[in-house]
Write a structure and sequence with these properties.
- This protein is mainly beta and 479 residues long.
- 8% of the residues lie in helices and 47% in strands.
- The chain has a 33-stranded parallel β-sheet that branches.
Length: 479
């Protein structure tokens, strides 16, 4: 009896510390996987998953080794455990992947958001599934672009119309267009991931009840953490009830993050990284809380509604940024309107940003908060924000007129140089700025703040460094 109790105690201890009781798992090597990095192990891994699912579920275990794979099919009640030293490697053999399926529509969102089966690992209409372990998913053979007609996959891990999903402790390297694409997923937890990838880190699309925490994502050529609300389900559905906390996003050279070298071989190269809402924005973004996050050598925070989305009830706090290559804060309500005919322009309202520190932000772009004529942002609060811009703005830049560009793809760079160096605010009804200070590291000929067609402004302890003869605050139109 004492021996049995000891065994049970050991198993409980292993589970408590995140370890897998290997003897009770479905070891892929028992199903014929070689793990030599040369033999394709897709069939063996899928057989292990099928066997576990046939017995009601369980842990499919990948011990240390290199597993060359095509499409792996996840099923309900399955935990795929990738152990330390184990790597799933995406093959470059097109026939190893599932073809693009016929989906509900391919019109209102980008091509990669319209297909899900052409992936390294995917699950559709499944529940209670997890990807665990301190091993690696390497998208070596994946495309980093959408290529119609090609069978080769472009996504590492996909969940489509699923519920109760956990992704924890895994490392993603060179993961294709999406390291993680979750569309129509309820109850999604993503924790303690490392990503060093060539395109998007994670896209959370039309999902509800999402927790993202303790993740480090280096994605120099695309977004790090991106919330979206496409029409990929065949109807507009909001991404709502989301928390993002204790995460780091960056735009260092790919591979240098995991290597610990943090290189920027070309200091003028385009960098993205960042946390963003949009651009795909049919269904909306509701009840979002972001806190305790770091941006390093990448673009800043972006909140965008372009396709009829209702973006509301968002709180963002305790953010630090360094070496930001575009606007540190970008809030944009536009009218691209990629969606069913008759869709109304969306709304962006009830957003609070507080406790933000930025050092070394690009001199061409202020923080930009703007709607379009007839469609104002509403009820925006900014509190305790300190931004050091690089500076260097000229008199010519200060005189520039900013175009509306209602239907353009939204990016902080879309307007070109901004005539204010600190904050450019336009088409807003109700904005409060409290304890805001901006300054520059090099002389700048532009005003610190411009408010254009802004109603109901409240300013308290707002400061902006300016050159002699330059207005600190410039107001155009409205009250």
């Amino acid at each position: 009896m004492r021996i049995k109790l000891t065994i049970v105690a050991c198993l409980l201890t292993a589970i408590a510390f995140g370890q897998t009781p290997v003897k009770t798992a479905f070891n892929v090597k028992s199903f014929g996987a070689s793990g030599d990095g040369k033999t394709t192990d897709t069939k063996a891994i899928n057989s292990a998953i099928d066997s576990a699912a046939g017995q009601g579920g369980g842990t499919v275990y990948l011990p240390a080794g290199n597993y060359l794979c095509g499409s792996i099919h996840l099923k309900s009640n399955i935990s795929l455990y990738i152990d330390q030293g184990a790597t799933i490697i995406a093959t470059d053999e097109p026939s190893a992947y599932d073809p693009e399926e016929q989906t509900v529509n391919t019109v209102y969102q980008d091509y990669g958001h319209s297909h899900f089966h052409n992936s390294l690992i995917w699950g559709e209409n499944i529940h209670d599934v997890s990807i665990l372990g301190t091993g690696t998913i390497w998208g070596k053979g994946l495309l980093n672009d959408y290529k119609k007609g090609s069978q080769l996959a472009n996504k590492s891990l996909v969940f489509y119309k699923c519920r109760n999903v956990l992704i924890k402790d895994v490392t993603f390297a060179h993961a294709g267009w999406f390291a993680i694409l979750a569309t129509g997923v309820d109850n999604l937890t993503i924790d303690n991931l490392k990503m060093d990838t060539n395109r998007d880190g994670m896209d959370i699309d039309c999902c509800r009840n999402v927790h993202i925490s303790n993740c480090s994502i280096n994605s120099p050529f695309d977004d790090g953490i991106c919330l979206k609300s496409t029409f990929a389900l065949g109807f507009a559905r909001a991404t709502e009830n989301v928390t993002i906390t204790n995460c780091i996003v960056s735009g260092f050279d790919e591979g240098s993050f995991l290597a610990g070298t943090y290189l920027t071989a070309d200091s003028n190269a385009y960098r993205t990284g960042r946390i963003k809402f949009g651009t795909e924005s049919n269904g909306g973004f509701i009840n979002i809380a972001i806190s305790n996050c770091v941006f390093d050598h990448c673009q800043g925070l972006a909140l965008e509604s372009e396709d009829g989305a209702l973006l509301q009830d968002v709180t963002i706090s305790n953010i630090t940024m360094r070496d930001i290559v575009s606007a540190p804060i970008f809030m944009r309500l536009g009218a691209r309107m990629r969606g069913p005919q008759g869709t109304a322009v969306g709304q962006l309202r009830r957003v609070s940003l507080s406790n933000i520190r930025v050092y070394g932000s690009n001199p061409h772009y202020a923080s930009i908060i703007t709607g379009i004529p007839g469609h104002n942002l509403q009820d925006i609060e900014l509190n305790n924000i300190r931004i050091y811009y690089t500076g260097g703005g000229t008199v010519a830049q200060a005189a520039k007129k900013v175009p509306e560009l209602e239907k353009n793809y939204p990016e902080p760079t879309m307007f070109g140089d901004i005539p204010a160096y600190g904050f450019y605010v336009r088409h807003v009804s109700g904005i409060k700025l409290k304890d805001i200070e901006v300054s520059y590291l090099n002389a700048d000929a532009r005003p610190a703040f411009i408010f254009d067609d802004v109603n109901s402004i409240e300013l308290q302890n707002v400061k902006g460094q300016v050159a002699k003869g330059v207005k600190e605050i410039e107001r155009i139109g409205a009250d």
